[in-house]
């Protein structure tokens, strides 16, 4: 990266040394991701990135000079402009505009929470349904000021998300070790977002659960299950000694899917009794749990984890939305497990 200035936590990157065309395109995708843009604009820039990455350098330079980039499949007028402006040594105007327009706001009340966070305990890579490699996610987490991240791809039952079975999870562990060796002292912890099956069983064998650093357990199926069954299902999962964090507990999608119905007081009491943290999921379309449930979990004595649940590098910037929720509900910062350093987190989870 030729970006000379590291970003302040939660603020946008300041460029002082210009950017290469690839860096500019990557950063555009990052900014579009954090703005929850999922349509043709992201696809256009990803297409241009692929084209530039595979083009020989001499051809790229010739096309920039001759203004013939648009003759290349995958490159259009707006992506060509970004490439040319970056190649000329400046920060492309479109990127500058995006940096400002897509910056994640952070209130004074939420700022101390964001500043206290040292890691992110729930995020995905290309191994399941994420869009970025483990290394790309880790590098972005480092740029955001984190000391660690917990990689939590989906478990096998979530076939739609290309969930990992035992064998792939083991192969993933090798990649985590390899990336850790390169990026240290930053730490990638190996975790999983394990499906809570209909009866509250977990979608991974006990021995493998025991080897993971952090386990997030989430309900992804039969979200409309009757109240008593859903309560039993969740209680059983959070009682598991392997489960560290209960992910997006109501399963709601704002304006799209109603929250699941369960006895929250009972589930949170079990979370408190068994040391399972309640996740404050920061995805803008989830923001789960809603404030009344966060307050209930707080009264029950629960731990919390403020997680991005990122599926792309730009989405790692979403934790401030969870910080706003924590601030609004008066969650004490020392109840939030990802304000711990990595050793304290692992000790807490053990
Ligand atoms: Zn999930
Ligand atoms: Zn997730």
What does the model show?
This protein is an alpha/beta fold and 350 residues long. 43% of the residues lie in helices and 10% in strands. A 7-stranded parallel sheet has the order 1-2-3-4-5-6-7. Helix 1 runs antiparallel to helix 2, helix 10 runs parallel beside helix 11 and helix 11 packs across helix 12. The chain is elongated, with a radius of gyration of 21 Å. Residues 1-12 have low confidence and may be disordered. One zinc ion (ZN) is lined by residues 193, 218, 220, 247-248.
User: Segments where pLDDT lies below 50 for 5+ residues?
Assistant: 1-12
Radius of gyration: 21 Å
Q: How far apart are the first and last residues' alpha carbons, in Å?
A: 37 Å
Helix content: 40-55%
Strand-pairing-aware structural class? alpha/beta
Number of strand elements: 7
**SSE sequence, one letter per element:** HHHHHHEHEHEHEHEHEHEHH
The average pLDDT value, as a whole number, equals: 94
Lateral arrangement of strands in the main beta sheet = 1-2-3-4-5-6-7
Please state the overall shape, judged from the principal axes of the Cα atoms: elongated
- Give every kind of bound small molecule, once each: zinc ion
Please count the helical segments.
14
The biggest sheet amounts to: 7 strands, parallel
DSSP strand content = 5-15%
